Amino acid sequence: MISADRLEMNEKQQIALFLGNVQAEEGEMQLSSDKMKVHYRPRQEGAKQTDRIREILAEGNVTLRQGEHIGRAAKAKYHVGKRFLVLEGDKKRAAVVQRNKDRLEGQRIHLMMDDQRRIQKVTVQGGQSGRVSAVITPEGDMQPVPGKKP
């Protein structure tokens, strides 16, 4: 489901353009942005409505929420059938994906998802400097050993 302040459709080109406070949901995955362009397939008898969407291009203040993961970027491209999402930064800010205290940052972040839209694989690419950054924290609470100072 996609909602926005405004919608422009071009049935001939099979494109829907959502503008202003755009919110898209598919299962546990939520994608929001200022603008979202949806490329879709023609209607087919017996096909589900969600199967019609081929690709989603989001621009401006892009936020992805999927389970514990939160991503932020200037742009996003979601290949629906392949379950492949690319978050892309701009000159001002890198793309970021966080899960709890873990944080990945780079010019482009590629996310592969399973059939339930859960993130299975992440690849991060650097920008002009070629550098990426990652903060990965151990799981669980780190408790000091009794009687010893941390």
From TrEMBL:
UniProt entry keywords in alphabetical sequence: Signal
GO BP, one annotated term: lipopolysaccharide transport
Domain of life from the UniProt record: Bacteria
Residue span, Organic solvent tolerance-like N-terminal domain: 2-116
Signal peptide: none
GO terms of molecular function: glycolipid transfer activity
Region entry Disordered, spans: 123-150
Cellular component terms per the entry's GO annotation: cell outer membrane; outer membrane-bounded periplasmic space
Protein name per its UniProtKB record: OstA family protein
Organism of provenance: Magnetococcus massalia (strain MO-1)
